[in-house]
Amino acid sequence: MKTLLFVYGTLKRGLRNHRLLADQEFLGEATTAARYRVIDLGAHPGLVRDAANGLAVKGEVFAVSECALAELDDFEEVPGPFVRELIDVPGFENVWAYYMNTPVPPTAPTGDQWPLAQPA
């Protein structure tokens, strides 16, 4: 059985931790409903829900095996600094993502994708 997983940070293709998903089925680039926000934590991002000022977050969807999902949960320290919960990705059903499970640093930059776009 495969689990659909939305990734928005270092697990995306071409980024440093994609090796953890390299042998999983890439289903495509995707954008969430406008109810979330990516938080720039420096070396990696976090994802939070933001019902009031949410953005449509850009990322990728993978079909992930149970074994790979368990390894990813360990990598993301679930439950701990991150938790895995459902996310609304139009065009897909029952998609999971890793959310921050810690307070958002008050000065952390936010946006709709990671790495965040640099101001011009």
Structure description:
This protein is mostly beta strands. It has one domain (2-111): Gamma-glutamyl cyclotransferase-like (Hypothetical upf0131 protein ytfp), CATH 3.10.490.10. The protein is built from one helix and seven strands. The chain has one helix spanning 66-75, and strands spanning 2-7, 25-40, 45-49, 55-65, 82-87, 95-100, 110-111. Strands 1, 2, 3, 4, 5, 6 and 7 form a seven-stranded mixed sheet that branches. A hairpin with a 4-residue loop joins strand 2 (25-40) and strand 3. The radius of gyration is 13 Å and the shape is globular. The termini are far apart.
Assign the structural class, choosing from mainly alpha, mainly beta, alpha/beta, alpha+beta, or little secondary structure.
mainly beta
CATH topology grouping: Hypothetical upf0131 protein ytfp
Uncertain regions spanning at least 5 consecutive residues: none
Q: Strand-residue fraction?
A: 35-45%
End-to-end CA span: 45 Å
CATH class placement? Alpha Beta
CATH architecture assignment name? Roll
Radius of gyration, in angstroms, nearest whole number: 13 Å
Spell out the helices and strands N to C.
EEEEHEEE
Individual helix count: 1
* Proportion of residues in helical segments: under 10%
Biggest sheet, in brief? 7 strands, mixed
Return the average pLDDT rounded to an integer.
Answer: 95
The counted number of beta strands is 7
The total tally of domains equals 1
What would you give as the CATH superfamily? Gamma-glutamyl cyclotransferase-like
Short description:
By secondary structure, this protein is mainly beta. The protein has one helix spanning 66-75, and strands at 2-7, 25-40, 45-49, 55-65, 82-87, 95-100, 110-111.
